[in-house]
Design brief:
Elements (H helix, E strand, L loop, with lengths): L2 H27 L6 H27 L7 H29 L8 H7 L1 H16 L3 E3 L5 E3 L4 H24 L6 H9 L2 H12 L6 H22 L9 H13 L7 E8 L2 H8 L1 H21 L4 E7 L2 E7 L3 H22 L7 E8 L7 H19 L1
Antiparallel strand pairs: 1-2, 3-5, 3-6, 4-5
Helix pairs in contact: 1-2, 1-9, 2-3, 2-9, 3-5, 3-6, 5-6, 6-7, 6-8, 8-9, 11-12, 12-13
């Protein structure tokens, strides 16, 4: 058996293992959640499997494991590079969902962001007549064209953008997404990016597929972890995760700013349920959750946002300025008003907000903070009446 065939078999084994692992993750993910971000994750896995298959086919054809024609080989390369771009775009969209970016809520922005995939497709089609990307020479050898590097640039711009967005949120502190998630999102593209760089320099090394399959596994495990800690209706953190995040804040002695807790309660929520039904009641809760996310984002406040139970919500953040907490509460009310106007429903959702604080060196139990904030909240409700 020649070294080329042995190498092809090794490459085949690594890619088959990677494809099986990703296929299992896709099957385990399919239908478990109807969340848009999770459907995006599943689509990413399917595009990854096609990428693996085309990569494997190119290698076993090149090394003579299976007979082929030049047209079939180049077609496999076309599929490989097209799905490189599609896969990177899908990862980009998924990471934007994980960062709760308003970008993914705009259909127009989503279509505009796919421009690099479209350019990649156009270049692949043009390559049929110009050989600017890759071609088979007169000796039957596969060669790279003068614009070959564009294939990697167009695909990896999505990876670079997602990574830089997470880094900016981490450094600036202007993202309400928790710090651990931002670190993961900033670091995650690095390993696949390095794998792609290695494969670009030494295409004979079977690196990318293995790295991508491990990446998919870690993201899947992260998703399972989030399912345990996230409220399924509002996609905010649940009470269990709220308690955990608060305990972590108490342990963090590096930040000397006080902790503030906002208690948010929907006004006349029972009337909405009784008059318009529980489906509209759920829609009202989702609207409040979005207003909380938007309010924290607009105010540049990193915070833990959770559904405490029923129509009650909690926001925990650190700040040295009580006035900024009042501004945050106003921002939440303004965002909710905008969402009410946008929804056009026969009712308007409103909330009452109370807050409490604890010094950075005070180990105040969470339930005590909530009780204090609750008292202020019901004072506001009494004033409303």
């Amino acid at each position: 058996m020649t070294p080329e065939i042995l190498y092809s078999l090794l490459y085949l084994e690594i890619n088959i293992f990677s494809a099986i692992l990703v296929a299992i993750i896709a099957l385990m993910s399919h239908g478990v959640s109807r969340m848009v971000e999770q459907r995006t994750f599943t689509r990413t896995l399917y595009s990854m499997i096609i990428f693996f298959a085309s990569d494997t086919l190119c290698v076993i054809m090149k090394n003579g494991l299976v007979p082929y024609s030049e047209q079939v080989y180049l077609l496999s390369k076309d599929i490989y590079f097209l799905f490189t771009a599609l896969m990177c775009f899908a990862w980009f969209v998924y990471f934007e969902y994980l960062q709760d970016s308003p970008f993914v809520k705009s259909v127009r922005d989503m279509w505009l962001s796919s421009v690099f995939v479209v350019i990649q497709l156009i270049l692949i089609l043009i390559n049929k007549f110009t050989n600017i990307l890759y071609y088979i020479n007169e000796n039957g050898e596969y060669k790279r064209g003068p614009f070959f590097v564009c294939l990697y640039i167009l695909a990896y711009v999505y990876v670079a953008f997602s990574c830089s967005r997470a880094l900016f949120g981490l450094i600036s502190g202007r993202s309400h997404v928790d710090k651990r998630r931002l670190i993961m999102l900033a670091a995650f593209p690095v390993l696949p990016g390095l794998g792609g760089l290695v494969q670009f320099i030494a295409p004979e090394l079977p690196v990318v597929c293995g790295v991508l399959s491990i990446t998919a596994l870690v993201l899947y495990l992260d998703w399972l972890s989030r399912m345990i800690s996230v409220d399924p209706l509002t996609q905010l953190k649940n009470r269990k995760q709220l308690n955990y995040d608060y305990e972590q804040m108490l342990k963090n002695n590096d930040d000397e700013t006080p902790i503030y807790l906002l208690m948010i309660d929907a006004n006349k929520f029972k009337e909405i349920n009784d008059t318009y039904g529980h489906i509209e009641g759920d829609a009202a809760l989702v609207r409040i959750a979005e207003a909380l996310r938007n309010g924290c984002r607009v105010s540049g406040r990193r915070a833990t946002i959770a559904r405490y139970g029923g129509d009650e919500f909690v926001v925990i953040t650190r700040t040295s300025d009580e006035n900024s907490i009042m501004l945050l509460a106003d921002s939440i009310q303004e965002e909710l008003s905008k969402l009410n106007d946008k929804a056009g429903s026969p009712y308007r959702v409103s909330v009452s907000i109370g807050y409490a604080s604890a010094g950075h060196d005070e180990k105040v139990p969470l339930k005590d903070l909530i009780e204090t904030a609750d008292e202020k909240l019901y004072e506001e409700k009494k004033n409303r009446k």
